[in-house]
Amino acid sequence: MPNGSCAVVFAILLIIGSAGCLSNQSPQPTPQPTSLITALPTRESPVSTIKPADMALQLSDVPADYMLKERSDRIYPEMSQLSRDLGWRQGYSVTFYRLNLEKFDMTGLRQSIDLYPLGNMNKVFDMATDAMISRANGTVTVYEMPLYRIGDKSIAYKTENTSIPYSLPVYTILFIKKDVFEELEMGGTTTDYETLKAVAGIAADKIP
Asked: d(Cα 146, Cα 168) in Å, to the nearest integer?
């Protein structure tokens, strides 16, 4: 075969071989767009979402030697005119006590819960602190106690009647959280401010 013809045949064979190799390659899949699902953050309610009774302390929230004395809704007629003017809506109260006759011990722990319009909460807090301070007179002393923050704003007081020998102190913690105002008070023969602070923290955590 002439050299020119050999070159042509050789070129044809190369082309056929290349075509066969290309035809055996699998086609590459077309990339599909990935759909992204973004979880929307849950928006926390600016106000409480349960009834005051459901935010009240339970026996399991206080020391084991306390007993339940009273539970009750707070009603409109028993609220002060100032509370009504500030938009009081509803409330609840619960009282526990500890009694040990052998040790002459009787101590009470009271919680009150009140709901107001969110925009009035600072006024409610100021009203309550003013009422506490106004108890001070020639025989009654009111001291502000150290307190870590509970809820959105909080304050604590110790009240004593210095005219009475062996006066029994009363400890009070006030705090607001969202649209809830709470007052916790402990008084009696054996008071424990540390316990009251711990219970107040539990009470604040019950407000959703």
From this structure: 19
pLDDT score at 113: 98
Which domains does the chain show, CATH number per domain?
52-205 (3.40.1000.70)
Which two structure tokens, joined as six digits, stand for 147? 């307190």
71: which strand partners?
Answer: 94
Q: How far apart are CA 108 and CA 188, in angstroms?
A: 6
Question: What is the Cα–Cα distance from 60 to 199, expressed in whole angstroms?
Answer: 11
Q: Tell me, what amino acid is at 146?
A: P
- Residue 35, pLDDT > 90, answer no
User: What b/e readout covers 3-21, taking b as 16+ CB neighbours within 10 angstroms?
Assistant: eeeeeeeeeeeeeeeeeee
**DSSP letter string, 70-127:** EEEEE-GGGS-HHHHHTT--EEEEEEEEEEEGGGTEEEEEEEEEEE--GGGHHHHHHH
Which of helix, strand or coil describes residue 25? coil
**In angstroms, rounded to a whole number, what is the distance separating the alpha carbons of residues 12 and 70?**
105
**What type of residue sits at position 186?**
M
In one-letter notation, the amino acid at residue 205 is D
The CA distance from 149 to 189, in Å, is 27
Percent of the chain beyond pLDDT 90?
A: 72
Amino acid at 31: P
Kindly state the DSSP code that residue 28 receives in the 8-state scheme. P
- pLDDT average, residue stretch 104-127: 96
